[in-house]
């Protein structure tokens, strides 16, 4: 099984080329002023991200060999299985009933947070928890967090930005599947996200996969195309197909929805930060371009005035020259002209 979803690398290349071009143009037209703005942006990121890391460290329980050694052993085993050399710092946190996990990064250090509710829901099936651990390790191993800043200009692009985000999720689901000893446990991990810990045990996974055929309508297609995550029924179908040794054939999306989604920029990056970034970039460009344009207009007006003045001066010189030529013909010369007498 390929651990990287087939569209991720292609979309990554498009995102990288576009982002590098945008950063280069931005630096050129702002004469390096963008670097100052990026420095302030980095300082803002450090303050915001340090708040999250401080909250995790100050409230979560760090998973170590002494604290929850069973979870520590699972995380270490998943890292070895997926080829991640540097194990992230792991924490267990209560998140008000949410069934999930997430990975984050701060100043070169990776962190893995497991929600206590999903750990408790899978207490009788630890291998299904490996799906969550493997999924987040996939984000770390693929350096999704590290590339996010560089790819920021392209992240707000319609269709491409959300498509890349969804492709990353499919890739990380593959890592989660590879982390499980039994592929069916990966399905169960997704079932818990859909139905909760208790009902997932009674859930008919095939019937849930069959729901994917309802995603080809206009509205289902539209909201997936502008969203960062694939529909969970599609993720389940993909995991089930991979476990059986083949790629899934997902239902087609509405072409009309795709045409409309072209006009909707991505807004789901870090709680809407992607919507702020293009505005920030445009604001910086406008801050430089508008004064430059006004200076261009002023110079154009000055040049027009100068040309008009020079044209008037040339006209006066020509008139003076003609008058001088006329004055050069003396009255005596005119009087000596034969009169005919």
Q: Can you describe this structure?
A:
With 341 residues, the chain is mainly α. It has a domain at 8-22 and 61-269. Helices cover 65% and strands 6% of the residues. It contains 15 helices and four strands. A four-stranded mixed sheet has the order 1-2-4-3, sandwiched between helices.
Class by helix and strand content?
mainly alpha
Alpha carbon gyration radius: 34 Å
Series of secondary-structure elements, N-terminal to C-terminal: HHEHEEEHHHHHHHHHHHH
Number of strands: 4
Mean pLDDT: 84
Taking pLDDT < 50 over at least 5 consecutive residues as the criterion, the unreliable ranges are 269-281, 334-341
- Count helical runs: 15
Kindly state the percentage of residues in helix: 55-70%
Largest sheet geometry:
4 strands, mixed
Descriptors:
341 residues; 15 helices; disordered C terminus
What is the structure about, briefly put?
This protein is mainly α.
List the SSEs and their pairings:
Elements: H1 8-29, H2 33-59, E1 61-62, H3 69-82, E2 89-93, E3 101-106, E4 109-115, H4 116-121, H5 126-141, H6 144-147, H7 152-155, H8 160-179, H9 183-195, H10 205-210, H11 218-225, H12 232-243, H13 255-261, H14 273-328, H15 331-335
Parallel strand pairs: 2-4
Antiparallel strand pairs: 1-2, 3-4
Helix pairs in contact: 1-8, 3-5, 5-8, 5-9, 8-12, 9-12, 11-13
């Amino acid at each position: 099984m390929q651990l990287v979803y087939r569209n991720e690398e292609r979309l990554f290349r498009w995102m990288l080329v576009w982002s590098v071009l945008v950063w280069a143009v931005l630096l050129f037209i702002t004469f390096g002023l963008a670097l100052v703005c990026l420095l302030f942006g980095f300082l803002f990121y450090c303050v915001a991200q340090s708040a999250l890391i401080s909250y995790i460290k100050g409230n979560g329980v760090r998973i170590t060999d002494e604290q929850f050694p069973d979870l520590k052993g699972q995380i270490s085993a998943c890292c070895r299985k997926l080829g991640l050399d540097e194990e992230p710092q792991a924490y267990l946190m209560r998140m008000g009933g949410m069934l999930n996990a997430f990975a984050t990064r701060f100043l070169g250090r990776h962190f893995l947070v497991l929600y206590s509710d999903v750990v408790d829901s899978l207490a009788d099936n630890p291998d299904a928890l490996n799906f969550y651990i493997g999924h987040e390790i996939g984000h770390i191993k693929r350096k999704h967090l590290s590339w996010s800043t560089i790819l920021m200009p392209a992240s707000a692009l319609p269709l491409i930005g959300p498509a890349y985000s969804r492709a990353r999720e499919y890739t990380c689901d593959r890592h989660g599947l590879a982390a499980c000893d039994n592929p069916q446990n990966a399905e169960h991990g997704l079932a818990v996200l859909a139905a909760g810990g208790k009902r997932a045990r009674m859930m008919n996974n095939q019937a849930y996969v069959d729901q994917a055929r309802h995603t080809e309508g206009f509205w289902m297609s539209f909201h997936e195309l502008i969203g960062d995550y694939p529909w969970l029924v599609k993720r389940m179908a993909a995991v089930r197909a991979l476990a059986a040794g083949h790629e899934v054939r997902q239902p087609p999306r509405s072409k009309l929805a795709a045409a409309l989604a072209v006009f909707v920029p991505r807004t789901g990056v870090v709680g809407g930060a992607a919507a702020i970034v293009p505005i920030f970039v445009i604001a910086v460009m406008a801050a430089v371009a508008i004064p430059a344009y006004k200076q261009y207009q002023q110079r154009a007006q000055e040049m027009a005035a100068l040309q008009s003045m020079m044209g008037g001066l040339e006209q006066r010189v020509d008139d003076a020259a003609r008058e001088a030529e006329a004055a050069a013909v003396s009255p005596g010369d005119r009087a000596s002209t034969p009169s005919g007498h």
